[in-house]
Structure formats: structure tokens, C-alpha cells
Design a protein that fits this description.
The protein folds into three domains: 3-151, PAS domain (Beta-Lactamase); 211-318, no CATH class; 324-474, Histidine kinase-like ATPase, C-terminal domain (Heat Shock Protein 90). Helices cover 56% and strands 15% of the residues. It has twelve helices and eleven strands. The strands form three sheets. It has a five-stranded mixed sheet with strand order 6-8-9-11-10. Strands 2-1-4-3 form a four-stranded antiparallel sheet. Strands 5-7 form a two-stranded antiparallel sheet. β8 (392-399) and β9 (403-410) form a beta hairpin. α9 (334-344) crosses α11 (369-386).
């Protein structure tokens, strides 16, 4: 049974039962109130009528003569019947259709020589009083009143309560349908989301074959789940179960890919170390055989080959937390580092028609020298890409009491305002033609290196024309 139908029927049943209980209680209370009021009224009438007869008669004979003439019956309300009995229980006056013997109330007041039966109708209310004479009781008077009108009134009240309950139930049926639908709608939405997530996170191989990982539920549980499959909550549970199985399979697939990635890194690391080792060995042999004037150049290349080997080993050994790892931590002379970077790129700057300059003070920072050199090389290389011929790229080393800064300034086209924050994201490149061949990784790596050193990398937006990139490092 659908959840909407179940909720609607539940609300309807609760409303109907509640209204019937309230209506029945009201009718019962009304019946008790009417019965009590009738009893009090009839008792008062009997008391008044008995007092009147006691004033008019003094002996049993006078009482019998008096009641035969029915004195003052017009004082009683319509529908009230009067019967008079002697002290022996003999009917002296009254409607014979009500019976020849006293009712229960009058029977308790007579003194018959033998037991008398009771003459009392079920649809009448009775009250009796003894008639007091000068020498004692002289008779008994009994008043009775039909309860048919009260029964009809209670019957009409019962019908009215039932009709009101049915009308309220119909109104509640419509309201409960809306409420149940509003309750079930989010569950249906969650079911669809779970189905979508299950389809998203199910591996392609399982989606194509339609297979799902086996469940370990016992047969009885699977039967109960099948019987409840039309319920929105049960459908949501099934969707979540499918999502869970898909996620387990997805996680297992991710583990497989992670293992394959680790194997790939190990293989690439081995393949790259072999040629780098050969290059380093060849450069060492050349350095030993070349004249002293050329040996400095080969020695610089040898140092770069060693640095490239360290960077490759570091890049192919990513940490578990995804953050950039620093292999060494030592004081770094930033002015000397800037001079070294500009020396390496002097030939390229000459071919581009751009001049490289280094200015600043001999400041120091603590960190990984190879990583800082890598970051500065990226910034200077970017400056050489965009600097127009005949201009200069300036590397500035400066600092204050809070931080030291490596600044690279160029006179190129600058960075568009829409890209000033996005250029630090991997894969995002500038819109100038010089950036078309770039992979969009350099600035992201620069920021990672700066953050790994406890600093930051940013673009000075106030600099114009051109661009000024800053690496800010804490003072050692």
C-alpha cells in the first residue's frame, strides 16, 4: 500500500473514531442530564401533589373518595399519569393500562399482606410519595412520565453527531490526502536523488551489465522487503541500499585506481631516473675533460640535472594529504637564488629581446631551495613569455619586519580582472597569445610552494601596466 494512501486512511480513521467518541460522549452526557432533570422534576411534582392530597383528605376513606374525583390534575404537566394506591397496594385510581399494581417507587411505600408484583413500563419514569394524614399515612400517590420525547431527542442528537462525524470525515479525507502527499513528496524526492546517486556512483562495468554486488540478507528479509516494495519508504530504503552497494563498488574501483596510480608513479620514477643518471654521469665526465673556461658551464648544467632529479623524485612521490611536500628545510639566500635563476634564463631573454634585472638586498628565508627556485623560475619564465621586445623583466628582493618578498615585474598586457583569481587554479591559462601553449600549472604550483613555506603568492592588482607577481615568505 502506498504511503500516501496509508497516511490518508490513518488520518481519516483517527478523525472518524475521535469524532464518534466525542459525539457519543456528548449524547451520553445529554441523556444523563435529561434523565436527572426529569427525575428531579417528577419528584418535585410528586411531592407537591402528595402535599395537596394530604391537605384535602384526613382518612383513607376520604383519600379514596378524593382520588376517584381526580382533584387538581390540571396542575400536572401534559403526559404525566397519576395512580393512587391504598396502603394495602390496591389501585384506587389511575390508568388501568399502566397496570394494576404499584411501580417500584410506590411498592416500597405500601404495606400489602402478601407480596405484590411490580407494574412499571420500561419507557416511563416513576416517582411516588406517601399521603400523610393526622393519624399517619392514608395512601400512596404515584406519578409517571413517558420518556419517549427524551429518547427521540437523544436519537436525533445521535443522528446529528453521526452526520457531523461523516461530514468532518469527508473534509478530513481531502485534507489528509493533501497532508499525506506533502509528507510523501520529500520521500519520493529523496528516493529519486538516491536513485540518481546510485546510478552515478555505480561503476560503468556494473551499469552496462546491470549487475549489482550480491547482498547477504536472509531469504525471509528479502521476502518481507518485496512485500513492502510499493511503500515509498521501502522504495527509499531499496534506493539507499542500491546506493550503498554502488558506493562500495565505487570505492573498490577507486582503490584499484589508486594502486594502479602508485604502480604508474613507481614505473615513471624508475624510467626518469635512468636517463637523468646517465645525463649526470656524462656531464661529470665532460667537466673533467673540458678546459677550465668551459667547465663552469658544464658544472652548472650538472647542478641543474641533480636538481631535476630531486624534483622528479619529489613530484612522483605525492603525499597522502594531497599537499606539497618539502624535502629539505634550510636558510636560503634569496638574492643569490634570483641571480642564479636569471643566469639560467639569460639566453632565452636575449633571444626574446628582453632584459633581465635583479635588484634588492641580500635577504634570507627558511625553506626548500629547490622548490623556491622552481617557483621563481615559473614566474620569470611567464614574464619572458609576455614581455614585449625591448622591455625588461625585473626580479626584486625586498622585505620588512614581517616578511620577505620575491617580486617579478613585467611590462606585458597584464591579467584581465576576470582571471586574476582563477589563474591560480590548475588548468586555467591567461587569454594572451603567449599563454596558449601553457598547460596552466605553473601559477598553481607557485602558490602551492608559497603556502607550503607558510607564506602566500598573489598578484599585485595595483601594478600597471603589465603584471607584478609576489611570493611572500615569513621571516626566518
Amino acid at each position: 500500500m502506498a504511503l500516501t494512501l496509508r497516511l490518508g486512511l490513518t488520518y481519516l480513521l483517527i478523525t472518524l473514531v475521535g469524532l464518534l467518541l466525542v459525539g457519543g460522549g456528548f449524547v451520553a452526557l445529554a441523556g444523563r442530564y435529561l434523565a436527572g432533570a426529569r427525575e428531579r422534576e417528577l419528584s418535585a411534582q410528586a411531592e407537591m401533589y402528595a402535599a395537596l392530597l394530604g391537605e384535602l383528605a384526613d382518612t383513607p376513606t376520604q383519600f379514596q373518595t378524593l382520588v376517584t374525583a381526580s382533584p387538581e390534575r390540571q396542575l400536572l404537566p401534559p403526559g404525566t399519569a397519576v395512580r393512587a394506591f391504598s396502603l394495602a397496594g390496591v389501585l384506587l385510581a389511575g390508568d388501568p393500562a399502566l397496570g394494576p399494581f404499584p411501580g417500584r417507587a410506590a411498592l416500597a411505600l405500601v404495606h400489602a399482606p402478601f407480596p405484590l408484583p411490580v407494574s412499571q413500563a420500561a419507557d416511563r419514569l416513576y416517582a411516588a410519595r406517601a399521603i400523610a394524614g393526622p393519624a399517619g399515612p392514608i395512601g400512596v400517590v404515584e406519578l409517571s412520565h413517558t420518556t419517549a420525547d427524551d429518547a427521540a431527542l437523544l436519537h436525533n442528537l445521535s443522528r446529528l453527531a453521526l452526520q457531523a462525524a461523516l461530514i468532518a470525515a469527508l473534509v478530513m479525507a481531502a485534507i489528509s490526502a493533501l497532508v499525506a502527499r506533502s509528507i510523501a513528496r520529500p520521500i519520493v524526492g529523496l528516493t529519486r536523488q538516491a536513485e540518481g546517486l546510485a546510478a552515478t556512483y555505480t561503476p560503468p562495468a556494473l551499469r552496462q551489465t546491470g549487475a549489482v554486488p550480491p547482498t547477504h540478507d536472509p531469504p525471509r528479509t528479502r521476502v518481507r522487503r518485496a512485500l513492502r516494495s510499493t511503500d515509498e519508504i521501502a522504495q527509499l530504503g531499496q534506493s539507499l541500499a542500491r546506493l550503498e552497494r554502488g558506493l562500495h563498488a565505487y570505492v573498490a574501483r577507486i582503490d584499484e585506481l589508486e594502486q594502479a596510480r602508485a604502480r604508474f608513479y613507481r614505473s615513471v620514477s624508475h624510467e626518469l631516473r635512468t636517463p637523468l643518471t646517465a645525463i649526470s654521469a656524462t656531464l661529470e665526465n665532460l667537466a673533467d675533460s673540458l678546459p677550465a673556461a668551459q667547465r663552469a658551464t658544464v658544472t652548472g648544467l650538472e647542478g641543474e640535472a641533480h636538481r631535476l632529479g630531486r624534483l622528479v623524485a619529489d613530484l612522483l612521490r605525492p603525499p597522502d594529504d594531497g599537499q606539497l611536500a618539502l624535502v629539505t628545510w634550510a636558510p636560503v639566500a634569496l638574492k643569490a637564488l634570483a641571480d642564479e635563476v636569471c643566469t639560467l634564463l639569460t639566453g632565452r631573454a636575449y633571444r626574446a629581446g628582453v632584459t633581465l634585472h635583479v635588484v634588492g638586498d641580500p635577504l634570507h628565508a627558511s625553506g626548500d631551495r629547490d622548490r623556491l627556485k622552481q617557483a621563481l623560475l615559473n614566474l620569470v619564465d611567464n614574464g619572458l613569455r609576455v614581455a614585449p621586445p625591448g622591455t625588461a623583466v625585473l626580479v626584486r628582493v625586498a622585505g620588512d619586519d614581517t616578511a620577505v618578498r620575491l617580486t617579478v615585474e613585467d611590462r606585458g598586457p597584464g591579467v584581465a580582472p576576470a582571471l586574476r583569481e582563477r589563474i591560480w587554479v590548475r588548468g586555467v591559462r591567461g587569454d594572451d597569445p603567449a599563454s596558449m601553449g601553457s598547460a596552466g600549472l605553473g601559477l598553481a604550483l607557485v602558490r602551492q610552494i608559497a603556502v607550503a613555506h607558510g607564506g602566500r603568492a598573489f598578484l599585485d592588482e595595483a601594478w600597471a601596466p603589465g603584471a607584478r607577481f609576489v611570493i611572500e615568505l615569513p621571516i626566518p
